[in-house]
Each structure stands twice: as structure tokens, then as C-alpha cells.
Specification:
Elements: E1 8-12, H1 17-21, H2 24-33, E2 38-44, E3 57-63, H3 68-78, E4 82-85, H4 90-99, E5 103-105, H5 110-119, H6 130-138, E6 163-170, H7 182-194, E7 198-201, H8 208-217, E8 222-223, H9 230-238, E9 240-246, H10 249-257, E10 261-265, E11 281-285, H11 308-311, H12 315-329
Parallel strand pairs: 1-2, 1-4, 2-3, 4-5, 6-7, 6-9, 7-8, 9-10, 10-11
Length: 330
């Protein structure tokens, strides 16, 4: 059976938070183009809230990494007609092979990434966002747009109104080379406080220490970090005028909520497709360095030991860019 005749379709994206969130525009576009199809999703349990209430999905399956056979048994019982594998790794391949249904697989630009990271040979003729790449893998003619990028909350009656003086900082990121220095966030916060802005610090369980460090140094800043409660974080973003983020899953959550985003990129580069998927976004990066990118995922330390990709994005420069962005978008 081919995709167009299939009725029950399984979408596979197991991890990580940002990657799962970036499937949201694809889900919206698929349901809009194929309203009669039944779409299901399989995802790691810790990221299932990212898609839990999406109206395009008929069902969601939480992947058990410790006992994958249990998940596969549940999926087999569903008798899916077709699979869209947006993960394309060993775990997702096992699911696909076990189910035995026809499949379309997301082809990662691994060779281009490798050449750009290790030889600074840029073969990215056109920069495409990850949602665009996912969409072409799912259905070659599928088009995604910013309106499809929406994070759905439970029991929502109406969206909260943004508070014009509330600014959210998201200082966390999984890898060191993606983190804007905490003292820089603190200095930027002081500049914004002098202009009458309120600073709220958002993060998950892994970001609590960083958020606590900044809130201790930045008088008046509110630490709203959670134990990875996506719904609580999304509600904070809804009332936020602008979010200042590293390259992280929360950067994509802010975009999915509709919050204007300023993204600070260190070792990351826009060629990899992870820039904010939003009409209202600004990406700040140091384009003067020949060592960028040093990785396509991030590193625990700067391999050159100077960390200029972040250290040369001075708080005063970010403040000036913030001011321009705020006036244009809020």
C-alpha cells in the first residue's frame, strides 16, 4: 500500500525535545492536506507532552526504552498501513522493521554536516528549516507554514495576553558550547531592568542550577524553572513579550507558543536547520570565526579554549539588538 491509499499512518520521532517540537508544523500540515487519514505518533515518554494534545493525532504511544518490545507489541496491534520515520536511527529502524509496513524515512544531511564541521566545506546550497525537511520526508509536496507551529495546552479556553514588560530568559542548553554565559545573562538582565522590564528565568530540571545562579545575582529576577513541566513553561511563554534563548528545546517551545524569540547561537549555525521557526525571531551569532561550527550537536567545552563564539556576543550588543527587535515586534 502506498502513502496516498493508506488510512492509518504512524509517525515516529522518539527524541529529543526540540526535534519532537519541530514535528508540530508537519502534523498540522498533514492533517490539513489529508483530513481523512488517521495519524498516530510514537515518542519517548519524557517528551510525550510535546504532542499530547495535538488535534491532528488520533493516538500517541509512549516508547519504553527499557522495554521496547512492549511498545512494539502495542503498535503491532494497531495494524498501521504506513510509517513516517522522522528519527532514522537504530531504535526507530527496529520499530519500522518490526511493523513491516511501507515507510518513508527522513534522510539526515549527515555528510554535509560532517564536511561543514570538520573541513568547513559548506555544501548547503539552500538553508532549510528542520520542519521543512521533515515535511518533504513525510510527503514530497507537503508545505509547512508558521501558523501550523502550535503547541497545544490541555483545557485551554483562551490564550493569555502577553505582558509587555515581561521578558523570559532561557539560559539552559544541553551542551556547554550552546550556553550564553550566565554572567552575560545577568548583565543583560540589569540593562533591561533599567528600562523597566521584568526578568523571568525559565528552564527544566537540568537548568535549575543555572537559573538559580542568575536569579541570585540578578535582584528582582523571578526563577520559574520547573521539573520539565512543558505546560507550565508554555503558559509562562504565553504571557512573555520576548524570550531570549540559547539553541535549546525551550527556544522551539517559545516559538510554538507564538512568543517572539531572540536566539543566541554559539557553536550552532543556521545551516543545520534549527533556527527559530517563527515570523518573529532574531538569531544572533558570531560570524567572524573560522572555527564555527565545531559540532553539529554541541560540545562540553570549547575545543579552541577561547569560546569566542559566545564571549564576543557582548551583553551591550545583545541589548542593542533586543531594543530594535522589541520596538519592531511588540
Amino acid at each position: 500500500m502506498n502513502f496516498y491509499k493508506a488510512r492509518k499512518i504512524l509517525i515516529v520521532r522518539l527524541s529529543s525535545l526540540g526535534d519532537v517540537l519541530l514535528t508540530l508544523p508537519v502534523l498540522g500540515a498533514l492533517k490539513r492536506k489529508f483530513p481523512d487519514k488517521n495519524f498516530s505518533f510514537v515518542v519517548n515518554k519524557q517528551y510525550s507532552d510535546a504532542v499530547k494534545f495535538h488535534p491532528a493525532l488520533n493516538s500517541i504511544f509512549e516508547y519504553d526504552r527499557d522495554n521496547p518490545e512492549t511498545t512494539i507489541e502495542k503498535l503491532l496491534a494497531e495494524k498501521f498501513d504506513f510509517i513516517i520515520d522522522l528519527q532514522n536511527n537504530r531504535r526507530s529502524s527496529k520499530i519500522v522493521k518490526s511493523l513491516g509496513a511501507p515507510v518513508r524515512v527522513f534522510k539526515k544531511p549527515d555528510l554535509k554536516k560532517f564536511l561543514l564541521v570538520h573541513f568547513k566545506l559548506n555544501l548547503f546550497d539552500e538553508i532549510k528549516s528542520v520542519p521543512e525537511l521533515y515535511a518533504s520526508a513525510a510527503e514530497p509536496a507537503l508545505k509547512v507554514n508558521y501558523d501550523d507551529f502550535e503547541f497545544f495546552l490541555p483545557e485551554r479556553k483562551a490564550k493569555h495576553v502577553p505582558e509587555k514588560k515581561k521578558i523570559c530568559f532561557c539560559p539552559g542548553a544541553q551542551h556547554f558550547t550552546k550556553r550564553y554565559p550566565t554572567d552575560y545573562f545577568t548583565e543583560l538582565g540589569r540593562m533591561l531592568q533599567r528600562d523597566g522590564f521584568e526578568i523571568h528565568l525559565l528552564g527544566g530540571k537540568a537548568d535549575k542550577e543555572i537559573c538559580g545562579e542568575i536569579s541570585a545575582a540578578l535582584s528582582g529576577a523571578e526563577n520559574k524553572s520547573t521539573d520539565d513541566d512543558l505546560f507550565a513553561l508554555a503558559r509562562e511563554f504565553e504571557t512573555c513579550a520576548v524570550a531570549v534563548c540559547n539553541d535549546s528545546g525551550l527556544m522551539h517551545l517559545a516559538s510554538a507558543v507564538g512568543t517572539p524569540v531572540i536566539a543566541l547561537f554559539g557553536s550552532s549555525v543556521r545551516e543545520f536547520g534549527f533556527a527559530p521557526f517563527s515570523r518573529k525571531s532574531l538569531l544572533l551569532e558570531n560570524n567572524s570565526l573560522s572555527c564555527r561550527p565545531c559540532s553539529h550537536v554541541g560540545r562540553p567545552k570549547c575545543p579552541k579554549e577561547h569560546f569566542k563564539c559566545m564571549l564576543e556576543l557582548k551583553p551591550k550588543y545583545v541589548y542593542e539588538k533586543f531594543t530594535e527587535f522589541y520596538k519592531a515586534n511588540v
